[in-house]
Automatic annotation (TrEMBL):
Residues annotated as domain UTP25 C-terminal: 528-712
Signal peptide boundaries: none
Regions of compositional bias (Basic and acidic residues) in chain numbering: 142-158, 293-308
GO molecular function: rRNA binding; U3 snoRNA binding
The protein's name in its UniProt record: U3 small nucleolar RNA-associated protein 25 homolog
This protein's UniProt keywords: Developmental protein, Nucleus, Phosphoprotein
Protein role: Component of the ribosomal small subunit processome for the biogenesis of ribosomes, functions in pre-ribosomal RNA (pre-rRNA) processing. Essential for embryonic development in part through the regulation of p53 pathway. Controls the expansion growth of digestive organs and liver. Also involved in the sympathetic neuronal development. Mediates, with CAPN3, the proteasome-independent degradation of p53/TP53.
GO CC annotation terms, alphabetical: small-subunit processome
């Protein structure tokens, strides 16, 4: 089910205490048969239909005393409030080619009101792994003999029961190392003692075991990121790509929390696309080569040497936040598969894909002044509800392939959430996630602004035993899959713009790779407070919480009892309260209403008219307080004028939001004569966020001392 209707309602969110999915005993009976099932799976795929789920999130209302009990997730309401797009300098749609998409059937496109999901069933036999054979001219018939390549070494390792038990029960051992470009790395593993590992100074493409034609196409595709001073003999990698790919190619898990949409985002995307495509081509070449051997062997011959598949075909799952990201990924895949202009690959449904994943120039609003990072993140088509299957077979690519006929699935968290469904729903499916070998989660920080529950929901349903056989030939299935050990072989690549406890938790609690993990752990030296350009006293007020579970309640009581009374006086007008969590925002809003305080509020669900009204009231001083959510700032970046007093109810998720909000004060007309204040609430559990704002040295001092900290930042820092 590769593509979900945009207008479908978002599903209800399961709690974090969701129980594990119970496996059906019928499946174990199927394992006992081990009968060859060469029939096509198209019958099951054609029977698939979308699970249009009832919406659970209610739109926010402005009625007095209303109680907010819904999730603040990134479903349709949030998507409709995504900021107006701005004109990008170069979009993936342009990179895919300039031919018009008028000939494409875009009636099901997101901008035309999707009624029914499109799935390509016409090319089923052409892209079937079971019925195709390796082309002799490709020179890859002996792909399975290359025992030195990392792909073979990783998938061919046979774990023992005691090793699996060890990974399930014992903690990981770790070691530290510093690399020239990535910086401080933490290597961790359970099965083997971690030894310091140095980066390769020189990388020869021929020694990377890239599958044809990637050895030829990669230098050309990656050329825009290389220095103009590079010689033809120099490695076709940037320093960052070289070190990242060095780790990826060992099939270790990787967490890189320094992705930047402005600087290195595209470099990273190209690197993980190369790794994913290399993995798929090698895996498919092994299957096609074994098909040829089975065809040529004598009738009645039984061999156990051709176990080369998982329980389902999808091997790579790529999670990205917007359609524009999927458009770029497919463009990179096509570029990597085309050796030259004369040898173009056949891409099925390309025009349709451009029509549904590209951006419509007519829908772009007039240019608005927004920060550069905003323009980079929200370039192109920013719809966040999609999924698409991609099948690759030698010299052809099939877009919109049914999931059970796909090699790669590209999706957003919301797109995955609506197909996985919730317990008790009739139409739900997650069997296609059973044999995922590489999971790539890019721009993980954006999902914190959408709905992190969707990511957790996905992680709970990946690499589980399928509930149905889906036409699999059990004689070709690897033993690691039959033993339900897929999660111990899955490589997870996690890229984010920041360190966050929720992202760290996914990497530490949901990744079980036997090969180990590598995490980049650099500490910020200065912090974003150095980017504040207005003269402003910063008061950091520490609250004491007994444990992390009671921080939310402790912060609320601290704010209500100790902070808010200082601002109730009418003299303390124009006070903006910045609230990162929507739940905290609702709690504060209800308290302000109960206390009949003179306030207005803006959140990510507020309509344009309500936003304009709130900003006008605040500007004229008719409302003393303005409750302001972080996700509204993330999606809109609108300047609020006449701020005189600023309260950070909690440290912002993005460090640069701290300086952005503080710098809004310079828009005040009487700025030279104003007495401004900035108050920040923090606890010892906010160490990462605090370090990103004030720097690591100040953070250490502030956490050791239990006193409030006063900092004064001048305009020239």
């Amino acid at each position: 089910v590769p593509f979900q209707a945009e207008n479908s309602d978002k599903s209800s969110v399961e709690s974090d205490s969701e129980t594990e999915v119970e496996q059906v005993s019928v499946y174990h009976k199927l394992l006992a048969t081990l009968k060859t099932s060469p029939e096509s799976e198209s019958e099951e795929e054609e029977d698939e239909s979308e699970s249009e789920e009832a919406g659970e999130s209610e739109a926010e209302t402005d009625s007095e005393g209303s109680q907010e009990s819904g999730e603040a997730d990134g479903g349709e309401e949030e998507k409709n409030d995504v900021p107006d797009q701005e004109e990008g300098t170069d979009t993936a749609e342009q990179a895919l080619g300039q031919e018009p998409a008028d000939g494409a059937d875009t009636s099901c496109g997101p901008r035309h009101g999707v009624i029914e999901e499109f799935t390509d069933v016409k090319h089923e036999s052409e892209f079937s792994l079971e019925t195709n054979f390796m082309e002799e001219e490709s020179g890859d018939c002996d792909a399975d003999k290359r025992d030195s390549n990392p792909f073979k070494q990783h998938v061919d390792k046979e774990l023992e029961d005691k090793e699996v038990e060890k990974m399930s029960t014992l903690p990981k051992t770790s070691s530290q190392s510093k690399w020239p470009r990535l910086g401080q790395l933490t290597f961790s593993s359970t099965l083997e003692k971690c030894q310091p590992w140095k980066a390769d100074k020189e990388v020869d493409v021929k020694h990377l075991h890239l599958h044809k034609p990637l050895e030829t196409t990669w230098p050309k595709v990656n050329k825009p990121f290389l220095s103009s001073m590079n010689k033809a003999s120099d490695p076709p990698f940037t320093p960052l790509q070289r070190e990242l790919f060095c780790i990826m190619n060992t099939y270790r898990d990787l967490f890189y929390p320094e992705r930047n949409a402005l600087t290195n985002g595209e470099e990273i995307r190209h690197a993980y696309c190369l790794h994913a495509l290399n993995h798929v081509l090698k895996a498919n070449a092994q299957v096609l080569s074994n098909n040829t051997k089975r065809r040529d062997q004598k009738p009645g011959t039984v061999s156990d040497d051709h176990r080369d598949q998982g329980l389902t075909r999808p091997k790579v799952l790529m999670i990205v936040p917007f359609r524009e990201c999927a458009l770029w990924i497919v463009h990179i895949f096509i570029s990597l598969l085309e050796v030259n202009d004369k040898r173009k690959i056949d891409v099925s449904n390309k025009k349709r894909f451009k029509g549904e994943f590209g951006s419509d120039p007519e829908e772009k609003p007039p240019n608005l002044r927004r920060p550069e990072d905003y323009e980079a993140v929200f370039a192109g088509n920013i719809d966040d509800h999609f999924r698409i299957g991609v099948a690759i077979l030698q010299k052809s690519m099939r877009l919109y392939a049914p999931f059970y006929s796909s090699d790669i699935i590209i999706a957003s968290p919301l797109g995955m959430r609506t197909v996985i469904g919730a317990e008790g729903e009739k139409k739900r499916d997650f069997d296609f996630l059973s044999s995922i070998e590489i999971l790539i989660i890019d721009q993980a920080d954006v999902y914190l602004m959408q709905n992190w529950e969707h990511v957790l929901h996905l992680m709970k349903h990946i690499n589980l035993l399928p509930l149905e056989s889906h036409g699999v030939d059990f004689s070709r299935v690897r033993m690691l899959n039959l033993n339900n050990w897929s999660k111990y072989y899955r490589q997870t690549l996690l890229f984010s713009a920041l360190q966050d406890p929720q992202i760290n938790s996914v990497f530490s609690k949901h990744c079980f790779n036997y090969a180990g993990q590598v995490a980049v752990r650099n500490v910020p030296l200065s912090g974003s407070i150095s980017q504040v350009v207005v003269q402003l006293p910063h008061v950091f007020r520490r609250l004491e919480a007994e444990n992390i579970s009671c921080v939310i309640d402790t912060r609320f009581r601290f704010f209500v009892d100790k902070v808010l009374p200082e601002y109730r006086d009418a003299i303390m007008s124009h006070t903006l309260i910045y609230v990162p969590s929507y739940f905290d925002y609702v709690r504060l809003r209800n308290y302000f209403k109960k206390e009949d305080l003179n306030f207005t509020h803006i959140c990510e669900y507020s309509k344009k008219a309500a936003v304009c009204r709130a900003r006008r009231f605040f500007l004229k001083g008719e409302k003393q307080f303005l409750l302001f959510t972080e996700r509204f700032h993330f999606y809109k970046r609108q300047v609020v004028h006449r701020i005189r007093n600023l309260i950070f109810y909690e440290l912002p998720t993005y460090p640069h939001f701290y300086s952005e909000i503080c710098n809004m004060m310079k828009a005040t007309d009487s700025g030279a004569d104003a007495t401004w204040t900035c108050t920040v609430l923090y606890s010892k559990y906010d160490a990462q966020k605090l370090a990103a704002v004030v720097g690591i040295d100040r953070t250490a001092q502030m956490l050791q001392s239990k006193k409030n900290v006063h900092l004064f930042v001048t305009g020239d820092n």
